[in-house]
């Protein structure tokens, strides 16, 4: 699948056409000013997307901090963004794609065929010297019809089985994987058998995804072979979407565990491993 678009191609599309729907998905854990940042400056024509209310259902201990939204709810949001049948969608953020990847993955899961990430995000756009707008953009309502099942998903039981019989990647920072620190979820550690593969290693110093051959070597070094069945999780199913995107660039299909560690660690009956080993 085509995962990325570069800034020069996106600039051509927004100025010459065919014009895509551009989504601004600025969000960071513990910060609530994404909309204000968007209103201060955003890509021309970009629509703000609220991760907490539009890209996730309400948090519960049973489902995790960012459960998948109902398809009908996601469809209403996508139509608000102006998403139409057979019109390309481009998502970006200011965090190396770590949050925009949630919109990319959700729309792919919901059946949108042409949705990509702006490689390097807002920082790459700024470096290229392309113009920015301010204020809100209110597009004409879209007509997209969403379904589900366009991307593979695993639940807690299937994730545990992947950790035993396939490859389950933990996309969080290494210290959270080891259990050295746990800033938000009920317990520290990782799913037994999961392998540490932090999303920060998917990108270069400019926040752009590493080339496909580098990503293939990275994931091969972690333990992914050509025949492996692969899944990914993180804290709450957000940055794990970035891992799935990086794997797709490398030519590896991977399932997402949406509940991730926030769901897993909330159940005291589920085991938690600590340390650097699976």
Can you walk through the features of this model?
It contains eleven helices and nine strands. With 278 residues, it is an alpha/beta fold. It has two domains: 124 residues, Rhodanese-like domain (Oxidized Rhodanese, domain 1); 109 residues, Oxidized Rhodanese, domain 1 (3-Layer(aba) Sandwich). It is globular and about 50 Å long.
What's the CATH first level of the largest domain?
Alpha Beta
Counting H and I runs of at least 4 residues, what is the number of helices? 11
Radius of gyration: 18 Å
Total tally of structural domains: 2
Sketch the topology as an H/E string, one letter per element: EHEHEHHEHEHHEHEHEHEH
Low-confidence stretches: none
Fourth-tier CATH superfamily name of the largest domain: Rhodanese-like domain
In CATH, the architecture of the largest domain is 3-Layer(aba) Sandwich
CATH topology heading of the largest domain: Oxidized Rhodanese, domain 1
Average pLDDT over all residues: 96
Helix fraction?
25-40%
Biggest sheet architecture: 5 strands, parallel
Strand arrangement across the biggest beta sheet = 1-5-4-2-3
**Ends apart, CA distance between termini:** 30 Å
Backbone structural class:
alpha/beta
Total beta strand runs: 9
Shape: globular
Strand content: 5-15%
What are the key terms here?
278 residues; 11 helices; 4-stranded parallel sheet; 9 strands; 5-stranded parallel sheet; globular; alpha/beta; Oxidized Rhodanese, domain 1; 2 domains
